[in-house]
Amino acid sequence: MSITGKATAVAHPNIALAKYWGKRPFGHNLPAVPSLSVTLAGLATRTTVAFDDALAEDELHLGGHPAAAGPTRRVSGLLDRVRAASGRTERARVTSDNDFPTAAGLASSASAFAALALAASTAAGLSTSPEGISDLARRTSVSAARSAFGGFVALRSGAPGDETLPATPVAPADHWPLRVIIAVTAEGPKDVGSSEGMKLTVDTSPYYAAWVTDAPSLEERVRAAVLARDFQALGSAAEASALRMHASAIAAAPGLLYWTGATVNVLSEVRRLRARGIPAFFTIDAGPHVKVFTVPEAEDEVTTALAAVPGVLRTLSATPGPGAHVVDPAV
Question: What range(s) does the Diphosphomevalonate decarboxylase-like N-terminal domain occupy (predicted)?
């Protein structure tokens, strides 16, 4: 073995308050709608990339196990871009671990490809500006563009002629001390991946065009609420974005229903909490889990209420956190 460059990076998943769903038809992995998210401390992906001239092909290990061909191809696609930019030809050994459920609707691909982009670029000796890492990650996973940055982050929709499209910071992590309680409602990966689900929605849903038309105004409402730290306005816009995204997916053929019965139970509980005057709102990505936002003073009460909902397996807690960063692999 002859390692020629090695680095380890950590990145965190992000939760979209204004949802991204669907891609532009003109290539370059460009989103069809603008989105705005918050990067989460408390959940993390740790990825090590080692370029090794003794390897005949790229190797990927996820959670201590060799990865399947599909994920490995996606990783190799990003590594090929790094090799092209750096002039390197060596294959790489990639090891990646999440401390939260993978491929389950908790934005593991966002943190995974942000961490991979930073670790690979560092190992190859390339520039590691957040903008460059964001664009590199976005070319493989659109949502990963936002995990390159910390705090509240926006990604505009793609336009004809776009090739470079990084995310942009909106506000730092300490701008607003929100609390995020994740109600985990299922184990294991979801049946239909986000990329597959998006394509099906784009191709078959009669509601998709309405979603693309409506989403920009929702993103504007979310952005204004974040900047003003207006919890009620943010909750109203974020819930609308999530429900309208899922409505477009449910209307696909065949319909995409990422929810479980427990998902609906949690939505009902959040509305009951609000009726009692407790600040809380929900959002749901392409998966069965529900992310519930609240304020620090109500965190314990909201967590207790969600943990008692039938079908909730456990809860995870998070706060606005940092962007992708390089770490000492020994730590």
Answer: 11-161
Kindly indicate whether the domain formed by 3-173 is annotated with CATH number 3.40.190.10.
Answer: no
Domain boundaries, the chain: 3-173, 179-320
Query: Is 179-320 in the same CATH topology as 3-173?
Result: no
Predicted confidence pLDDT, tens digits, the chain (331 residues):
578 899 999 999 999 999 999 999 988 899 999 999 999 998 999 999 999 999 999 999 998 999 999 999 999 999 999 999 999 999 999 999 998 766 544 658 899 999 999 999 999 999 999 999 999 999 999 999 999 999 999 999 999 999 999 999 999 999 999 999 999 998 878 889 888 999 999 999 999 999 999 999 999 999 999 999 999 999 999 999 999 999 999 999 999 999 999 999 999 999 999 999 999 999 999 999 999 999 999 999 999 999 999 999 999 999 999 999 999 865 5
Architecture of domain 179-320 in this structure: 2-Layer Sandwich (3.30)
Tokens of 199: 């394509």
* No. of helices (H) and no. of strands (E), the chain: 9, 14
Q: Is the pTM of this model over 0.85?
A: yes
Residue 25 buriedness (CB in 10 A; 0-12 / 13-18 / 19+):
exposed
